[in-house]
Amino acid sequence: MYLNVGSKPFLIKLPSSVSVEILQNISIPCIATGTPDPQISWHFGNGSNISTNSKFAVSSEGTLIIQDADLSVAGKYICRAQNRFGTEEQSLDLVITGIRKPILSPLPDILEVPKGEKKSVSCIVLDGNPKPHLTWFRNGQPLQTGYGLKIDDGRLEILKADDFHEANYSCFASNIGGSATEEMYLNILYHPEIFPTNQEFVVTEGSDITLSCNVKGDPKPAILWYKDNIQLIPNDEIYIENDGSLKIKNVRSFQEGEYICSATNIVGTSDQSMKLIIKVPPRIIHPVSSYNVTEGNIATLNCNVYAKPPALIRWKRLKPDGQENLEKYIMYNGSLQ
Questions:
Q1: Which domain covers residue 210, as residue numbers?
Q2: Which of these, 185, 260, 270, 187, lies nearest to 221 by C-alpha position?
Q3: Distance from CA of residue 245 to its chain's centroid?
Q4: pLDDT at residue 21 tops 80
Q5: Residue 4 covered by a domain
Q6: pTM above 0.70, yes or no
Q7: Out of 121-125, 290-294, 316-320, least confident range
Q8: Which are the contacts of 183, defined by CB distance < 8 A and separation ≥ 6?
Q9: Count of domains forming the chain
Q10: One domain, residues 227 and 276
Q11: For residue 165, is it within any domain?
Q12: Based on the domain organization, do 227 and 256 belong to the same domain?
């Protein structure tokens, strides 16, 4: 007769739970004694056997090794020791720690970029474990590289700002702990542009005149007016209207000249020059009502006239039987001789 002496397995007590930080590796030993040496196996909480794969492995000593622990591996685990004299098992709970939802650095509410310039905006993760995944959206749709836009490691690059790029943008960060979003509006700024207008204005002295200056720009340009390169200071008779036009009341001849509309914003300045021509109706300067002359002498009757453009001067002699045309006696300066 052969007597086989042995003992059933005895497991060194496992902790009721162990913890591991998210995406870290963990090794959980399972030590058993017995004769003959027990075979150690690990099982999920539902009793199914744990086999070696990219996530799990069991060493020859019976240690359970878990790679890149995430929430999917959290739960109950069973270590089982077995020989021909019996079986013993213990369980523990695996807890995943260190999970932190993403926290993003704020984006500006409005990002202003001059048209044609390059600009980049970084979506900065202040916290989050595991490392959050970043996605950019434009007007609520996932942003694709192209059309002058590029995404590089969470940084949005506007290669050459254009009208198309003006939109709402948001950076979305997510991990297994949650998500966070930061939003901004991209506003494309425009260099002031003065639309074609009259290059020459003609007005009669004493009338009112409006010199128009149609300006487009973002932000709204400030408008100044100059006459002969000297800035105009608004007063009761000359002022700048809300649309940027220059209003001149009761125009006088000395106000004739070159005017410049200058539009400026933070992007730049545009100028538009125009000419104001003032017509002056003919008026006789220092008229003389009578002349005394000795018979037989030459008489010169002066007619000093101011007008713009120059006036055509005619003389007529009033007679009881009608008028006599005296054009043949008119001198080049308008005097009658």
A1: 195-280
A2: 270
A3: 29
A4: yes
A5: no
A6: no
A7: 316-320
A8: 107, 168, 169, 170, 171
A9: 4
A10: yes
A11: yes
A12: yes
What CATH number did the domain enclosing 20 receive? 2.60.40.10
Domain stop point among 37, 65, 97: 97
Are residues 107 and 93 located together in one domain of the fold?
no
Residue 178 is assigned to a structural domain of this protein:
yes
On whether both 50 and 72 belong to a single domain, the answer is yes
Task: Give dist(CA 13, CA 30) in Å, integer.
Answer: 9
Cα dihedral 247→249→255→261 (10° resolution)? 0
> Computed from CA positions of residues 137, 139, 144, 147, in that sequence, does the dihedral angle turn out positive or negative?
negative
Place of tokens 């993760």: 125
Say how far residue 213 (Cα) sits from the centre of its chain.
26
Q: Which two tokens stand for residue 12?
A: 């060194």
For the stretch 193-212, what's the b/e string if a residue is b when 16 or more beta carbons lie within 10 angstroms of its beta carbon?
A: ebeeeeeebebebeeebebb
Residues 6+ positions from 285 with CB-CB distance below 8 Å: 304, 305, 306
Using DSSP's 3-state secondary structure scheme, residue 255 falls into helix
Burial 280-309 (b: 16+ CB within 10 A, else e): beeeeeeeeeeeeeeeeeeeebbbebeeee
Per the prediction, the chain carries an average pLDDT of 86
Distance of CA 26 to the CA centre of its chain: 48
